[in-house]
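Sequence in, structure out. First:
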Amino acid sequence: MSQPRIAFLASPAPAAQQALSELVAEHGNHLPEDADVICPLGGDGFMLQTLHRHGALGRPVYGMKLGTVGFLMNHHRGEGLLERLATAEPATLRPLEMRVLTESGATTGSLAYNEVSLLRQTRQAAHLSIDLNGRTRVEELIGDGVLVATPAGSTAYNFSAHGPILPLGSHTIALTPIAPFRPRRWRGAILKADTEVCFKVLDPYKRPVSVTADSHETRNVLEVTIHESRDRTVSLLFDPEHNLEERILSEQFTV
């Protein structure tokens, strides 16, 4: 079997840049569009950046942790990369698609592999309504904001906001309020992945709200619609002893 063509990408961190030089010297380097596999070197932020830039190519992605947080990455080792790629197990991620209407009348869109979060822009609490598949389920949520998370992203911001951890492949998404004041006892919901979620900002001029899809922020929003992508997927590769499904499961037993 011929050696796979690898596209190495690295964050600006010195450790990632050093690893890039060593791996390219041993394996060469290819453009992502010409590669068989993409290998980002960095943390989860750089992994998400890589998925946003190159996910549409449909190449499998094998990341190595050379950053602060590496939940979506494998451990970094300089040796044995070809053997690790040959035995790696795939995890298929399906991102969220977000459509936003802003106060200026503009409509923008973005993908989110972790979560879409709405947050108040000022000291004033956000006032939001929540529709699911066209039916209003929460007439007025008052708080810092709300988010929708994928299973892969459910262990990140969603979990820190006391949202549920979702098993990979469960075909669900998490709807989680952020520091809710009213309804006081509402803790969010687990939804079927094909649910269309629509947030409307009830007082956008006095209580402005921004929305962030992973790291892409849009400010002064009026309405945000989110649903799981129907045609976009990405395959992340993981070492068998450190696969993503087991990692997500283990997070539920971490104290």
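Second:
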Amino acid sequence: MKIGQVARAAGVSVDTVRFYERRGVLPAAPRRPSGYREFGESAAERIRMAKSLQALGLTLDEVVDMLRAHDAGGATCESERWRLEAVVTRLDDRIAELERVRREAVQAVEDCRAGCCRLLSE
């Protein structure tokens, strides 16, 4: 498959395919004599998998590490579950931080309503 075909099949741009190849999501594609990359049929599925893992909250580096573990042949759901658990922990931390900031913003609004505005210094 040419790069444009992979991009269309995966629902991403050609630049995204190139980026994923550079970052290691996709193995380096061999080139035709014309210089065009020749991707295997699994490239689009691999991109879709990477995108879905990123949508769950894994970083691109984590996705690449997970794919490498899969490619090495020893990865199972059980052996890789810790990655998703780390995402959940990060999300919980982020939610806690957002809740803290929200409480401060609500307090600032209440202060403004009470005539003690934090936005304007005198």
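Remark: The chain has a mean pLDDT of 93.
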